[in-house]
Design brief:
Layout (H helix, E strand, L loop, with lengths): L9 H11 L3 E2 L1 E6 L5 E6 L2 E6 L2 E5 L11 H6 L9 E6 L5 H6 L10 H5 L3 E2 L8 E2 L4 E12 L9 E12 L12 H4 L2 E3 L5 E3 L17
Antiparallel strand pairs: 1-11, 2-3, 2-6, 4-5, 5-10, 6-9, 7-8, 9-10, 11-12
Length: about 210
């Protein structure tokens, strides 16, 4: 099947993305607005960018009416009216349902923390709180927002954040900074309402040695 994205509806384009780009890690993003009100939302368009400086990104699409999601409105730079900060909390199986529940649209200013039963914990550097239940959290300052179609329904936005502090529970990390995947027990997003565990893993050596691995 050959497909021209321009000939597809927005929902069909989205369906292709979330069905084929799998599994996707989940960023549970906590932010705070200028009035001190917290917000929490999950995003699976999320990735690391680089280690020098330590950088990541998440992608909050516009609402169906073209307006910004609260996470973007809060995290965008201060020059654009936001606070310029956010926290990415890694989602483990133990609170995966709470994290997904935070996708429920609430009136602006209402806290998803309260609605879904997750706990705020003070961050070390940024004002936005981290999720106490999360075993790894990245405190970020927003470097840049790239808008692929400003003001358009479902238009994409790339939020680049420099990680200024990392919280890792002692149970998931050792002295060499290796994260134990079994202890982290992260979950991933699939297509539709599907999710996956990270418990079925296998090792492959890098480079041409991979071809000799059994």
């Amino acid at each position: 099947m050959e497909l021209d994205p321009a000939a597809l509806s927005i929902p069909d384009r989205y369906k292709l993305l979330i069905g084929a780009i799998v599994p996707r890690p989940i960023a549970l993003v906590s932010t705070i607005d200028g009035q001190g009100r917290t917000n929490l939302a999950p995003f699976s368009f999320f990735a690391g960018v680089g280690s020098n400086p330590l950088t990541l990104l998440f992608c909050p699409a516009n609402n169906p009416d073209g307006s910004e999601k609260d996470s973007l409105a809060n995290a965008k730079p201060t020059s654009e009216g936001g606070t310029g900060e956010f926290v990415v909390n890694v989602v483990s199986d133990a609170f995966a349902r709470n994290a997904v529940a935070a996708s429920e649209p609430l009136p602006r200013g209402s806290s998803e923390f309260d609605a879904v039963g997750l706990t705020t914990s003070p961050s070390h550097v940024v004002r936005a709180p981290r999720v106490a239940e999360s075993l790894v959290a990245f405190e970020c300052r927003t470097m840049q927002v790239i808008r692929t179609n400003p003001g358009a329904p479902s238009g994409g936005n790339v939020v680049l954040g420099q990680i200024v502090h990392v919280y890792a529970a002692d149970a998931v990390i050792n002295s060499r900074l290796h994260v134990d995947p079994a202890a982290l027990d992260a979950v991933g997003r699939m297509g539709g309402t599907g999710y996956c565990h990270t418990r079925d893993r296998f090792d492959i050596p890098l480079g041409l040695a991979a071809l000799k691995a059994t």
